[in-house]
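User: Can you fold this complex?
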Amino acid sequence: MDLPSNVWKSVFRNPLPSSDRGRAATSFTNFFLHIQPVRVSRQALRPTYTMGLGLISFFLFVILTVTGVLLMFYYVPSTTQAYDRMLDLRSSVAFGVILRNMHRWAAHAMVAVVFLHMCRVFFTGSYKPPREFNWVIGVSLFLLTLLSSFTGYLLPWDQLAFWAITVGTSIAGYAPFVGKTIKFMLLGDATVGQEALLRFYVLHVVVLPAVLTIFVAVHFWRIRKDGGLAKPEEAEPAPKPTVQVEVLEPAPVLAGAAGSAVSAEPARRFSIQGLVRGPFVKVGKLEEDTVFSWPNLLIAELFVLLLTIAGVLLVSWVFNAPLEQPVNVMHPPNPAKAPWYFLGLQEQVSYSAFWGGIGIPGIELLLLVLLPYFDRGKAGVGRWFARQRILANSIFLLFVVTNVILIVIGTFFRGANWQFVSPF
Amino acid sequence: MGAAPSTNEPAGPPAQQHGDHDTARQIPRRNFLAWLSGAGVVGSLVAGVFSTFVFMKPRVTYGQPNRFLIGHPEEFPSGARVAIDTKRVCIVREGNKVAAISTTCTHLGCIVAPSQTGFQCPCHGSQFDVDGNVTGGPAPKALAWFQVSLTPSGELEVDKDNEIQTGTYLSV
Amino acid sequence: MRVALAVVSLLVLIVGGVVVFDQFESRWQDHQAAYFHQALAQAKTDAERAALESRQPKIEQTIVTAFAGPGGETRIDRCQSCHIAVDDPRFASSKQPLATHPYSEAMGDIFRNGRWERRHKFTDFGCTVCHDGQGRGLDTADAHGEGEFWPAPMLGSTIQTGWDKEIASHLHGKEFLQANCAQCHTAKDFAGTPIVARGRELFFKTGCFGCHRIEGLSTGTLGPELTEVGKERKLDYLWGHLVNPRAYTPTSIMPQFKLSDDDKKALVIFLKSRRGSNPAESPTEAFRLNAAVTSAVPESVIPSEAMTAAAETSTPRGEKLIQQYACLSCHKLDARDGGISPDLSYEGLLHDGPWLMDHFHNPRSRVPDSNMPAFGLPENDFQAMAAYLLTRTAPPPAATPAETYKSLCARCHGDKGDGRGINAIYIDPAPRDLTKTEFMVSKPEARFLASITLGVPGTSMPAWGKALSGDQIKGVLDYVFQTYVHEPRRQLKPRKVPEQNPVPMSAASAARGEAIFLQRCTGCHGRKADGHGPNSMDISPRPRNLRNSAFIRNAPDRRLFESILYGVEGTAMPSWMDYGLAQNEVGDIVNYIRSLNEPAK
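Assistant: Here's the predicted assembly.
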């Protein structure tokens, strides 16, 4: 009977690869693998270079999607039932507690890891041309992550959720001209209530994940199109290329941006890309600098995936997601705090409502988005804390440290009436 | 891409890339590790799929419970045929014997109504006799009988999760 | 890398396995298995045995739609998943969780045909309607509401983590369940809820009704509304708040009433029974009930002769009313002392009829910062009480100055003279701290004599001159200086202070004064000059309320000028002369303050 092997072959077009040709073919023909290059730079595989932060973010997103879909089976976005369903997750639903814990902790972790990923990209100068736009997408992804986490925060409908969202949407209400309207549209009512719960639910389970998925896809695609992860221009003295495919004239767009350093270099390019406008891909200018994706990249990815799952599982096994008392609109807790990632904002708001809540964060965001269009020098790309980028890195470090300190103050050092208290 | 494998890794770490530099001792070790990893991944996948099924099967429902009290036996005089529509069950008492007959039509799930001759389905005309056996219409099988028991506090309890033989009564 | 991969993949498998395994372990299953086992041994008929044998452990739940639960609409009680024998009389002497719920005639259960029949069937009522707790929980801590976040721990049995141990020791007992009985059995003389009825009585007897509003019962407005207090607060808060209101709300003006533990328990149970809408009343009924409460007369008085004895103003009636209206849970009268408000024993000497009536109608008309509520009682009751108080004209017995101080002054000024008598925290402005040497030695003796003899208008300091002789007063003052002030009177340099405000009163002057006031004085005295500026809480003695008309009108220009220009020794009031205020500017300020206190036209 050839049937089993015929079926197998129809699904997997290649046998398990034993030769380099097979390794390449596997990467080409498998849907899930074709997003990856056939060969990958050794630099990109170094754990100390990327720390796997981008991948961890993505895998956390996958975990969140899976656990989130499962939780949807038992959740009702209703002010009278949502909290009861939380109690049921704790008592009568199999795996209810662990799923909720996983979803909660993975969500918090994703906010943190996406931010760390952004820091990594900055400190290695990986937003430099041609990756400017991918940086912008990355910033958008960070905001989408924050929004997803924030909208999910309301769904348990306990005191923590209710007042955190009340505080959070009030910060949004400080925006000039449109603030009040945005807050009203977000809540669907003057205060947080049934309408707000329904809106946050729809945003949380449909709108934001869909947008996020599209942005993630574009983010990944552009990594490929921008030539893989950023690497140092002159990592090692270049031996002669072993294969010369075809050298095209440098495209006009590249000439201005990259300067003469690019065109002077012997570069190997795929001819097909000569037809495409835009920055060129310089595929592994050094053979020695790359390895096959199968199995090297795959093993690394699988390792990160399993590590992420193990981490989330372990944390969820040990720590329970918080569930405070049911909503009581008459009794705000003192202090009423936003989710931790907005506590920096809340801390700023306590100094100045407009500047802390809208002005400064708006300027920071604008600078983040525009950054790669100002800072175009090529020096120091692909290395951590390169000396040539000391100014840029110092400024960014200041930004990071300031925000972390503000969040730490808001989280641990603020007690009743937003008074300064010591947690020790 | 077409370059010979041996020229591929002139300076790479020897044992951690791919097969060409393996010594005979490393191959069984590598296979063992691959087997272990595979077992871990496949095992976790199986556990995950199994868990999903356990998760999807509700442990409690939010509708009417399937085991419920219907009152003291005295509340059903001999000859009573009381249909409790909200519970979809008909309590029958003959002498000192009590039984509970399903009022859900075995055809397509409508609620049958007790009649002079037994039970009648309003949807597609299925007919049943007093014991719930099919006497006409499209119904494929007899109405179910549920276990009735007497609780220690002296009340009758019907358990719809427990179907019993047609004609099995509880003596009270 | 490959080793790490293998390790991590096995780690995922192991943790995943533990998680999966854990889902099939629960205590309630063990309890049910134990129950089936024991019941099987006691089974008498084959049918019974067959029914028991066919049962598998599963989650037992009651869905109750008639009584809203704390989280949402439908109450789901899964208590019987562990307490599976509640309706099995054979387990009457078993231990929890496998014990029969007791039968009791008090709860309406009937013994008939040799067996008990329940009045409140579990299938109709569930468990948490009476017991509280978290019906959906399947784990002891969850189900009994032991976590600090659950709003309704089991009444009278579950002590939550974080409750004060001393308070919690009072919160055990079945009687607490009466709070839930009263949700449906709202009649105040319902036989099953005697402690709720007692608490309700205390609510009036202690005077709670004067400040607190409860829909359908009382109309007070000085304190927070208590209509739904049982829903919002747990037992430990209610109890703790009765013991010391300021422990929970530092700014609370609620007095610390003298209550026995039994009284506290009755009040707590009564308050716990206040949950706003209750299932026994339809909204229209509740509306009708509320509409009926128009009079402020509490129900403890209504049945007495207070209403029937028409316009009688005899003094014995007044005395009786003072008892019934709970005056003495704050005030002192002879031997009875509430320890919160002034002594009424010499009221006939100290105050006259109009003062008393004004004070009854609105205490703040005479003492602007009084914490006494306006009770709004019937006019003839006020008159009767005033008539009685005016008979209290027996002067205090002649005694040594030390004894006089102890009996008349120490209640406010304190045994140590430090202004911290038992009722000092309820008095605003606070009693003078007589040990503050700075202040005491810098004011002339005439001022002290005047304060004692004539009283200080707008404060709780009465005119003792009406009750004591001049010698007695002098004696007490000397005693105070000897005992509490250890320095001789200081001879101050003569100060340049005008007797009369040199700036004539005019709208323009007051406006100028207001501008200066807003610039310089609001930090302590407040933008409204009511003494509640942002810094006022940290200052002792508190900044003067400059809208206390009785006080300000009585203070001569000279005193205001001196206080502003030279400051007040021993207080936070600085010498504004040093900060550059000229005399005519002070004149503007004085005019501004006077303009605030002009009688309304």
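The longest helix of chain A spans residues 194-225. Confidence is low (pLDDT under 50) at residues 235-267, 269-280 of chain A.
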